[in-house]
Amino acid sequence: MSSKEIIKLLEAEGFEHVSTRGDHYKMRRDGRSIIVPLGRDPLRMGTQKSILDAAGIDPKNLP
């Protein structure tokens, strides 16, 4: 997954853009903050897993 795909997925889950600083995109929902590095295609597997875990999204349920 690329940075853009992760951001679209998080937005679909109700996360909103809070700020951008350098190449990091900050999103928040219900007090839970997620930082997504921008311009990465693809994101490394460990980074993807960390973002999805922090967001409470099960990677098995992704299309």
What does this entry look like structurally?
A three-stranded antiparallel β-sheet has the order 1-2-3. The chain is globular, with a radius of gyration of 11 Å. The chain has a single domain, classed as Metal Transport, Frataxin, Chain A. It is of the alpha+beta class and 63 residues long. A hairpin with a 2-residue loop joins strand 2 and strand 3.
Q: What is the strand and helix layout of this fold?
A:
Blueprint: H1 3-12, E1 16-21, E2 24-29, E3 32-37, H2 45-55
Antiparallel strand pairs: 1-2, 2-3
**Percent range of helical residues:** 25-40%
- Would you identify the CATH H-level superfamily? Hypothetical protein
Structural class: alpha+beta
Helix count? 2
CATH architecture: 2-Layer Sandwich
Q: The biggest beta sheet, please? A: 3 strands, antiparallel
- Please write the string of helix (H) and strand (E) elements: HEEEH
CATH class division: Alpha Beta
Chain-averaged pLDDT = 93
Mass-distribution shape: globular
Approximately how much beta-strand content do the residues carry?
25-35%
CATH topology-level fold name = Metal Transport, Frataxin, Chain A
Unreliable stretches covering 5 or more consecutive residues: none
Number of strands: 3
* Widest sheet, order of strands: 1-2-3
Distance between the termini: 11 Å
Rg (C-alpha, Å): 11 Å
Key structural traits:
63 residues, 2 helices, Metal Transport, Frataxin, Chain A, globular, 29% strand, alpha+beta, 3-stranded antiparallel β-sheet
